[in-house]
Design a protein that fits this description.
GO terms for molecular function: ATP binding; phosphorelay response regulator activity; sequence-specific DNA binding. The protein is α/β, with parallel strands linked by helices. The chain is 45% helix and 19% strand.
């Protein structure tokens, strides 16, 4: 139980307080002090140093203590019953049907008197003061207000006497003092409960084997346990008040914000820190249906030991790509959702399948999965499997210095999964499943790596076309992630085109402005989800433009120049494949994505064949 000190300005209030204490209800009252206003702050600090956790004070003294200290203060407020008695005495003294009564004093001393005019049939004038200097002025204003009687303290009584006006001293009774003591006692119980809960939480946090932070809904650190201090290499005072995003830049601000708004379930993700990789679990603490705070639990992850063979002491591992999840999303909601799922996949070493139209974005996603996972300190090896024969795939993967050997302990990323031979797919299945591999001589060797495959087509499409063996499909089915291209998303296509346009203008030192019509024309074209085609088209558009503004007419002229009408010879004798593609385009209204899906080929392959046979419709369609 805490201790309470009472500071009062008059001897009468000291006696009244002692009378109340003799009732035995307030055992935690430590002392009752007669206090002059000029000494109030000093005595309050002395009481706090002596162990007082709450102070009870009145009027200006209470206001000064609140202003100059951080000690909790309960104010003694004149009760409505006490004011009613004073008003009745005033009416007896004035003997008027509707007397004018002025009340002056510190504003924190009074109860609500808004209905006193009606209740007591008087005209009540209030002159609340904010400080001691203001009180003297308010007393003079009350004396000059034309009131029949003044009610207030010593300053008001003196002003009334000087003006020759009757007055009543504003005195407290046991009623207001007892109310203040009860309020202080209830406040003390609440503080003790809070301290008890905080102490229990501190013991709980300090007894954990993981670091822990408590955050407010704005993401600022409220407290940290000792293990977190060790992980961060900072003291509690340095951590408290810091935005958690300053301590861990990898933490997603949007994720914490949505957790506070939507009260989402706990989420986990791997973050990088100078002390190493940390697995952070964010748990919202909900009170009365709202998120009151967030508990962040951090556990240090052990790095995978590399068992890759050394080359005479030299590190022969290929350089790692520097991409992280924060580098991938340009404000594209669909891609943001994929990144959120990828953060979860980054925490495991299970084999993973990525698919989407943008091969460069797939590579960046794979690199981010590696760099933000437990194998980030080891090698990241990438290999494109398209247009490789069976023997080339076998040698490049399982040869003496093949990709599997180079990726030992790290991550092996294989693009173009649709081109991997069935025999190689079977070997990859055993590599991921049993952690064993065979070299070119057929010898079984242990393998420790994470396998990531990618393709423009989904697993279901690959399986339906017979380009994926059933065992590998089953292995990857629930660890498959679509990586949508921002170019194909309405909310980000405009941003992507403008960003690339400005970058190319700087690169070629040829500064142009893209008009709204030109931008609309570019957004309406089908780029197959790949920024490479967009980049080359924009580069030529910028280089050939003789005007500063590039509009939709400039875009259309370049399209027509790049895609001239087919020659008579070509039109007279179309190949069967050209006829098939032409019919499919007609059937789908020129939509390349739907046509490619209908023909069972990628949009990039369809585009190459259309250029080969000059099967270009007059309008590009998304």
């Amino acid at each position: 139980m805490g201790k309470i000190s009472v500071l009062v300005p008059t001897e009468e209030m000291v006696h009244l307080t002692h009378n109340i204490l003799q009732e035995g209800q307030f055992s935690n009252i430590q002392e009752v002090l007669l206090t002059r206003t000029e000494d109030a702050v000093t005595q309050a600090r002395q009481a706090a140093a002596g162990g007082a956790s709450i102070l009870v004070a009145r009027g200006l003294q209470a206001a000064l203590i609140k202003r100059h200290t951080s000690i909790p203060v309960v104010e003694i407020v004149i009760s409505a019953q006490e004011m009613a008695l004073l008003i009745q005495r005033a009416r007896q003294l004035i003997q008027k049907d509707r007397p004018v009564i002025a009340v002056a004093g510190n504003q924190n001393m009074f109860c609500d008197m808004s209905r006193f005019d009606e209740i007591f049939h008087i005209n009540l004038l209030l002159f609340p003061a904010c400080d001691d200097d203001d009180l003297a002025q308010k007393a003079q204003e009350a004396a000059q207000s034309g009131a029949d009687l003044l009610i207030g303290g010593n300053t008001v009584i003196a002003a009334a006497k000087e003006a020759g006006i009757p007055s009543l001293f504003l005195s407290n009774t046991e009623d207001s003092i007892r109310t203040a003591l009860l309020l202080a006692q209830n406040m003390d119980q609440a503080l003790q409960n809070q301290k008890r809960s905080q102490a229990q939480m501190d013991v709980l946090l300090d007894s954990r084997y993981t670091g822990a932070l408590s955050l407010n809904p704005q993401g600022e650190v409220l407290s940290a346990n000792s293990i977190m201090e060790e992980l961060l290499g900072m003291k509690q005072a340095q951590i408290t008040g810091q935005p958690v995003f300053a301590l861990f830049p990898d933490l997603e601000q949007g994720q914490l914000a949505s957790m506070c708004v939507e009260k989402q379930a706990p989420c986990s993700l791997i973050v990088h820190h100078s002390s190493g990789l940390l697995l952070c679990t964010c748990i919202p603490i909900v009170i009365d249906g709202a998120v009151d705070s967030i508990l962040v639990s951090c556990q240090k992850l052990r790095q995978k030991a590399s068992v890759a063979p050394s080359d005479k002491g030299r590190d022969s591992r290929p350089p790692r790509l520097p991409f992280r999840f924060s580098d991938l999303s340009p404000g594209c909601q669909a891609l943001d959702r994929s990144i959120l799922q990828a953060r979860i996949f980054a925490q495991t070493t299970e084999p993973l399948f990525l698919w989407g139209p943008d091969s460069l974005l797939l590579l960046k996603m794979a690199a981010a999965l590696h760099n933000e996972g437990p194998r980030s300190s080891q090698a990241f090896v990438e290999l494109d499997m398209e247009e490789l024969s069976f023997q080339e795939q076998k040698n490049l993967l399982f040869g003496e210095r093949g990709a599997v050997t180079m990726a030992e302990g790290g991550t092996l990323y294989l693009a173009g999964a649709q081109a991997i031979c069935p025999q190689i797919q079977k070997s990859l299945f055993h590599l991921a499943r049993s952690r064993m591999r065979r070299n070119t001589q057929g010898k079984r060797l242990p393998a420790n790596l994470r396998l990531i495959l990618s393709s423009p087509l989904s697993l279901r499409e690959l399986s339906g076309k017979g380009q994926l063996i059933p065992s590998l499909y089953a292995l990857l089915e629930y660890f498959s992630l679509e990586v949508p291209s921002p170019l194909l998303q309405p909310d980000s296509a405009k941003e992507q085109i403008l960003q690339l346009f400005h970058q190319l203008c700087e690169k070629h030192e040829s500064y142009h402005q893209l008009t709204a019509g030109g931008l609309k024309e570019l957004i309406g074209l089908d780029w197959g989800g790949s920024p490479l085609r967009l980049e080359t088209f924009l580069a030529r558009l910028i280089l050939e433009s003789s005007r500063r503004s590039i509009d939709e007419l400039a875009v259309s002229r370049l399209l027509q120049a790049m895609n001239p009408p087919a020659s008579a010879q070509t039109a007279a004798a179309p190949s069967p494949e050209a006829e098939k593609i032409s019919e499919a385009l007609r059937l789908h209204g020129g939509n390349r994505r739907n046509t490619a899906r209908y023909l069972g080929i990628s949009t990039a392959t369809l585009w190459r064949k259309m250029k080969k046979y000059r099967l270009l419709p007059p309008q590009w369609q998304a």
